[in-house]
Amino acid sequence: MRRILATLAIAASALVVGVTPALAITKNFVPDLDHPFVGLVAFYDEAGEFSHRCSGSLLTDRVFLTAGHCTDGVASARVWFQQDAGAEFNGTIDPTTGYPDTCAPDPANCRTSDELYNYGFDNFAGFPNHRDVGLVILDAPFDPGEFASLAGDGTLTDLATARGTKDVTFTVSGYGVTYRDPVHFVSFRSRLMAKSTLVNLLSALNDGYNLQTNGNGDVRGGTCGGDSGGPVFYSASSNRIVAVTSFGLNAWCRGTDFAYRTDRDAVIDWILGTVPASEADDIVID
To answer: Between these two residues, 177 and 11, which has the higher pLDDT value?
Structure first.
């Protein structure tokens, strides 16, 4: 099973600067100006060296939700909340935002963290319950004016039947790769969003733990590298998170995407029990 899983292209599998990424919002995307609480997060090792980037969402002014494979094995993080947080990246740095190395020259829209948590992600051990949820607790609060909420336990359960999957639409958001094939590679490092439709919740790859969606077709889009940890919203017009982007089945971002479900009591309880008590009281579950 681990050998099979090793071939899965992790949707957020950390996008390393200057290195071909594993698996952003693809196809029919639009700039995401609707979710100011979604941020671009860079992670660093013990020496402070850049490791990889992901996406994520603020549940409160200090609690940033992302994927477990994003927070796994790293020591610190920095989050930018500008919609175009890395759009001017020149191969070394974005001179406007400081991504990926500093919050200067726009510290008002950037926060640091050395408090990271992983729900238990360990190289897909236990798949399909690979526990792909992570938390970044910001050193200082950031208030974008609104926050994401968590869907309550079993929100997606009624969609598990074939009848329930019909025409169910989600919104995905993130800062990842926008287009990739063996010849081309496009990454705006900007917050983009797209619609995606439900495929399955109960197959062997999902089994109640993952959400499988498809971004192929008119007015739809999917996820890719650097989107890992980004939110999947349901209903599509809401700020309610039902899952975080986790992995894909190939490196070319062909539109079949998998997200780890957060609408489960076990995940919700872990989040509420991990964050500072004062922050737990501010997390909205609906």
So the answer is: 177
Name the residue with tokens 């309610």.
240
> How much of the chain is helix, strand and coil, in % rounded to 5?
10, 30, 60
- Mind spelling out the 3-state secondary structure of 140-199? CCCCCCCCCEECCCCCCHHHCCCCCCCCCEEEEEECCCCEECCCCEECCCCCEEEEEEEE
Confidence of residue 13 (pLDDT cuts 50, 70, 90): very low
The end-to-end CA distance of the chain, in Å, is 35
Average pLDDT over residues 132-156: 98
Domains defined along the chain, listed by start:
2-12+36-149+265-280 (2.40.10.10), 157-261 (2.40.10.10)
Beta carbons of 24 and 30 less than 8 angstroms apart: no
What b/e readout covers 199-229, taking b as 16+ CB neighbours within 10 angstroms?
bbbeeebbeebbbbbbbeeeebbbbbbbbbb
- In this prediction the pTM is 0.87
